[in-house]
Amino acid sequence: MATTADISRGMILKLDGSLYSVVDFGENKTARAAAKIWAKLKGVDNKRSIEKTWNSGENIFPIRVEKKTYQFLYKDDSGYNLMDNDTFEQIVLAEEMIDAPQYLKEGGEVFVFINMETELPIGAELPEKIVVLITYCEPGVRGDTATRATKSATIDTGTTVNVPLFVNEGEHIRINTKTGDYVERVKE
Question: pTM value?
């Protein structure tokens, strides 16, 4: 059995029948009372974010989660269709189960989190940084590299991102899928 001493960031806990991911945690010690462990939790199977406090040494109930690599095939009325790269088994996930679905491209890599108790997917995320093609943006002006000014650009998934003024249509760029920020230009 796990106790509060085993808490770590990213751990998935079962609380009151729901699953929560540990975003942050810490310990409060006072001279008179026993230590308390606190955690900021984000709902995995719901959209709630909560804070929970335990007495030091209390039992917690972590869930074993496996991270598997899938390939995005296509989107239809039932959801996002993904294929396991090892077994070629296909699954369908709802849009709310995927972090940053607006950056998904056909054939793109997706990490699916599987609850090993129920063998069911509980969520998915894209790699932290991906390479995309700019399909439309205003032309860049020579010499516009000194300031941090940005312009809107449409990428091949149909999403709009902000890029520096020197980036042009037809170029490949790397973006951060967590924040949607431009990272760098990519030579291909």
Answer: 0.78
